[in-house]
Amino acid sequence: MYPFQTLRDEAFEANLEIPRRGLAMYTWGNVSAFDPEKGVFAIKPSGVAYDDLKPADLVVVDLDGKVVDGALRPSSDTKTHQVLYREFPGILGITHTHSTYAVAWAQAKRGVPVFGTTHADHGAETVPCTEFMSPEAVQRDYELETGNLIVQTFRQGSIDPLHMAMVLVAGHGPFTWGDSAAKSVYHAAVLEEVCKMAYLTLTLNPQTPSLPEHIIRKHWERKHGAGAYYGQKI
């Protein structure tokens, strides 16, 4: 046994999904798992290869950014996770990767339009992309301000983070979240595939319009609406 074993185990298993799904090379990514009752999250330690990672290595941090338990330094993106957990109630896991197609859209500083039903099944609107961070914000606290920039993007666009669980940080890459650490990685994999599909769509037809709104709503509602009928009842 080790402190916060359940939380660390959840974060550990989710982090291993990053290389399994081809979402990052080397150490280019991290996942955290949040326990709202204790007000802490477990996150991958900075710069540790996935092959070398052990559950006890995960670092436990509170919402003030203080390390509660752990011998290693937490991910350099820890403050971004901290802001998102504090400002987006209801999310219990966060993933950050540098997956190829999602990063390409972020580098192009473009949100991803809803071109098809695959996207609509997971979000009924454009995947947002932030503005570039200002020089002043970079100087203040880069990782903390990355979280603030994401929050600002959602609030200015009146975007519900529980309905749109994905964002692109301009020039940087994707952050995704969900109701568990595993679901946040699932959304990271979905986002990468949606970004790839959108890129190929625009390559075939640069003038491709967005999917009609009535089809978008149908696909979103059949999975997430009050009368959802996709999947099995539990």
Protein model, in words:
This protein is an alpha+beta fold. Strand 6 and strand 7 form a beta hairpin. The longest helix is centred in the C-terminal third of the chain and has 24 residues. The two termini are 32 Å apart. 40% of the residues are buried.
Kindly report how far apart the N and C termini lie: 32 Å
CATH structural class: Alpha Beta
Task: Give the integer mean of the pLDDT values.
Answer: 96
Query: How many extended strands?
Result: 7
Radius of gyration: 18 Å
Which descriptor suits the 3D outline?
globular
**Pattern of helices and strands:** HEEEEHEHHHEEHH
CATH architecture name = 3-Layer(aba) Sandwich
CATH superfamily: Class II aldolase/adducin N-terminal domain
Uncertain regions: pLDDT < 50 for 5+ in a row? none
Q: Which percent bin holds the helix content?
A: 40-55%
| Category from helices, strands and their pairing | alpha+beta
Keywords:
single chain, 234 residues, alpha+beta, L-fuculose-1-phosphate Aldolase, 7-stranded antiparallel sheet
Write a concise synopsis of the structure shown:
The protein has 234 residues and is of the alpha+beta class. Helices cover 42% and strands 14% of the residues.
Set out the fold topology.
Blueprint: H1 5-20, E1 29-35, E2 40-43, E3 59-62, E4 67-69, H2 78-87, E5 93-97, H3 100-107, H4 117-122, H5 135-156, E6 166-169, E7 173-178, H6 181-204, H7 213-224
Antiparallel strand pairs: 1-2, 1-5, 2-3, 3-4, 5-7, 6-7
Helix pairs in contact: 1-6, 2-5, 3-6
